Amino acid sequence: MAANHSQLQHTLNLSLINSSMNTQAAQAITMLDDMAKTQPNSEVTSAPHPMLGNNIDIKV
C-alpha cells in the first residue's frame, strides 16, 4: 500500500512539474511576442561612443 501511495505521489509531482513548465514556456513565448511587437525596429545600430572600444579601463 505504501508503494502505491509513493508511486501516485511521484506521478502527481511529475504531472505538476510538467504543467508548470508548459505554463512557463507559454508565458515566455507571449512575453517575447509582446516585446517584439513593441520594439520599433529590429535593426541593431551601434551606440555613438567617443572611443569606439579602442581603450578599456581596468583596475586590479
Element-level helix/strand string: H
Q: Main β-sheet: number of strands, strand sense, barrel status? A: none
Number of strands: 0
Shape: elongated
Helix count from the secondary structure assignment: 1
Question: How would you characterize this protein structure?
Answer:
Pfam families: YjfB_motility. This is Motility protein. It comes from Anaerobacillus arseniciselenatis. With 60 residues, the protein is mainly α. Helix content is 62%, strand content 0%. It has one helix and no strands. The termini are far apart. The model has no long low-confidence stretch (mean pLDDT 85).
Keyphrases for this structure?
62% helix, mainly alpha, 60 residues
Draw up the topology in text.
Blueprint: H1 2-38
Summarize the structure in short.
The protein has one helix spanning 2-38. With 60 residues, the protein is an all-alpha fold.
